[in-house]
Structure formats: structure tokens, C-alpha cells
Amino acid sequence: MSRRAKPLLPDDQVLKSKPARPRDPAQPNLPFDPMPTRVEPCLALLKTAPPKGADWAFEVKWDGYRLALHIEPKGVRIITRGGHDWTHRFPAIAAAAKNLGLGTAILDGEAVVLDEQSRSDFGALLQRSLGGRGGKRSSAASVFFPFDLLYFDGHDLKGAELSVRRHLLEDFLDGAIGAIQLSEEVHGDSTALLAHACSMGLEGIIVKHRDRPYRSGRAGDWLKIKCVQSESFMIIGYEQSTVACSGIGSLLLAGRKGHDWAYVGSVGTGFNTKNAEYLRATLDKLKTKQPAVPTQGQEPDLCPADIDRGNRVSWMDRRRQLRHASYKGLREVQDNAAVFDVSERLVG
Hints:
By secondary structure, the protein is of the alpha+beta class. The chain has 6 helices and 14 strands.
């Protein structure tokens, strides 16, 4: 039986979500706007601590694939952050979207796979659904959590403030269960919410300014505060395993540095034998004679690879080297995940 996911809503009434407000029947009739074929997503800016005050709204930070759900009279499209059509990859979400009874809408959200505690599990999303070998499977287990409404009933809502967009979104999603569920706003002290999220093993929280329009890019209207710091890096090579000659001992990683690349260290934990074999087979097809990025005196048995895929690991310390890193999986090229930028981290 489908269940509703409320990982940040325990018995404590301080953290209980407020009920959705009723629709205002006096809302004006606005002229129809053309429906965008794609909207560049609004991105959250990483911060170490959450802001306080009534101007900010708080949500769970989901760990999955950022998607835009386009509902049109002619059908449903599910678009990745990079603009690729993944409707065929999420059949359960597409079917649920058709049953919402909406004429036209664009919902911004995250597709995840939930564990038994209703926490998003990125590894499970890759291994049980989208990952596979070649990433060609479809996902019947994924749940789409919309957290914003960009277009609705013929009206472009990107210029409206977040509180208005959320009001409309809650109207038709409140109480929904199954493959599409509202990413609920949670209420309480921001520091307590973050601590509670971390104690539950969640990735963190997202903080959004209630009065801001929807602006593409990382404008600072949305913030992300993480419990365990994780970012996407580029794999530039690997070091052979000292145990298995056909295995991988560690992956060498790079981050962006303006328009260039910078070596940030390696990761040697988090992948099992099956992961290592798949990575080795994939990387061996992409070997180059010279490292794509200088590796600062690594061992000579490295197999450099110029590969356009990121993997999720913990972020760098001030010495520009990864510390206590753990591999979480390969992201798809179409996902267009933002690769960690060393320049931004040094400035911030």
C-alpha cells in the first residue's frame, strides 16, 4: 500500500506541517500565457547554517534526480535538469500525473526512492531503478516530490512570489499519496529543524524566501544546508586495486576551477565489487595517454580517463583535498548535475 512520506514530521507539534489554505474564489482571471517548453531550474546556494525569520520556508532536502513535470492536454513530459526527456524512465510518475486532473501545469521537484523510514536513498535510486548497466531501466519505485509550481491552468507563475505558487500547489496535491506527493513545508526553529533532520539521517534541509519570484540559476533565493556534505565531481582516472588486478583501488576526482579543472583528491570507499567492475569496464573504454588534470605526484600506475560523468562524494576541506570521502554512484550525463566548483568554495 502506498504511504505518505513525512520524514520531518514526528509527533512533536512544533514540526507539524500547517494545513493548506483554501483557494480564494476572488482570484482574478488572468490572460493566458504560452506554456514554456522548458524552464531552467532555480538552484539552491550552499550555506553552513540556516537563516531565521518568518520570511523563510523550510523543506526536506531530497536526494534524487531533479525533474520538471510538464502536464499538457496532449500528454505528460518529464524533463531532466539538463533538458532531456525522461518520461519513459518514470512510467509510474507519468501515469500519476495524468490522473491529477490538470489541464496544463509545470511542476518542479525531485524523483527519489524512499527507504523504510521515508528517507530518500540515492544509491537505491541508481541501483534498483535508473542505474543498471547503461542506465536504461525505468523506475516504478520512484516517488516525485513537487516543491514548486511554475505554470498552471494557462498562467506563467514564475513571476509570482513563492507563497502564491505554494498555495496553488498545495491546493491540488494536499493529501496525495503514491507516485506523486507534495514536498511539504515544515515549521519551527531553523536550527532545531536542521538538527532533527540530521538526527534522522536525512541529507539536510532546503530554505526558500517566501516573497521571491522563481529565478533560474543560483541567485540566493533558495539555500541548502546539509548534514553530510556531498557534491558532484568529475572522474579523471583510477588507481588499480592492490588486491584484485582487475579491480579499482580508488577513483581520482576533479572539480571545476573557473573555466578549468583542479584535482581534488581520491575516493576509495563506498563501492562494492560489482560497482568496481562496472567502473573499471567503463573507464577502460575512455583511457587517454596523459592525465586530464595534473594529479600532484600520484602513483605511476594510474589509468587516466576523460569522462563526462560526475559522482557523489563528500566536499573538500580548506587544503583542497577530499577528506573521508565515500562514493555514492555515477550520475547520468542527462541529469546535468553541477560539478563542484573550487573557485566558489574558496570565495565562500
